[in-house]
Amino acid sequence: MRNHEPATDLDARYSAPGAEPIDWDTARDGLARAGTYWLTTVRPDGRPHVTPLIAVWYDGALHFCTGEEERKFRNLAANSHCVLTTGNSALDEGLDLVLEGDAVAVRDDERLRRLADAWVEKYGEDWRFEARDGAFHHLQGGRAVVFEVVPSTVFGFRKGDYSQTRWRFAAA
Questions:
Q1: Which PANTHER family match (predicted)?
Q2: Is residue 21 part of a domain?
């Protein structure tokens, strides 16, 4: 298991007077509990591509899966830099999170089996995958590559008692 204890900074320019930084445990729990995430990748021509997806927090990283024919997969094959965001649309409550990192394909079948269990635990039986041959295979057909995004930087935007916190992680 990774032990990522980030450097934490409060940006007073975007925080209420007297605001305190959000602790990393709160942000990590928010990343783990979220149901929907937005993945931003870069198209070959440099334009952004954004799509919603589901993900699991496991062993210090966010994990998501996608088919090899999908735009996000093709984008990541050319440029692994990406951003995952989550939060809620309320203006004055909640915590929005932005995770920056590089997406790396997970190919180890044993690790994929553990991740498949995490998918079912979080999202239920509709999201049961068989892990084999370096990918997820849905029981109803279809192959998906699993990507891991270890955070390099995470931003937290607390609404209501506004604060902006940045967590920076040492390079692995």
A1: HEME OXYGENASE HI_0854-RELATED, PYRIDOXAMINE 5'-PHOSPHATE OXIDASE-RELATED FMN-BINDING
A2: yes
Question: Which residue type sits at 155?
Answer: F
Whether 1 maps to a domain, the answer reads no
Give the tens place of pLDDT for each residue, 68-114: 999 999 999 999 999 999 999 899 999 999 999 999 999 999 999 99
Assign residue 29 the CATH number of its domain. Answer: 2.30.110.10
**Residue 82: count of CB within 10 angstroms of its CB:** 22
Q: Report helix, strand or coil for 34.
A: coil
pLDDT tens per residue across span 48-57: 999 999 999 9
- Which backbone phi and psi does 13 adopt, to 5 degrees? -60, -30
Give the rounded percent of residues in the chain with a pLDDT score beyond 70: 97
Name the one residue in this structure whose structure tokens are 């390079």. 171
For residue 53, give Cα distances in angstroms to 34, 64, 91, 150, 168.
11, 7, 22, 17, 24
CA proximity to 167, closest of 8, 19, 57: 8
pLDDT greater than 80 at residue 141: no
Residue tagged 């870069």 (tokens) = 42
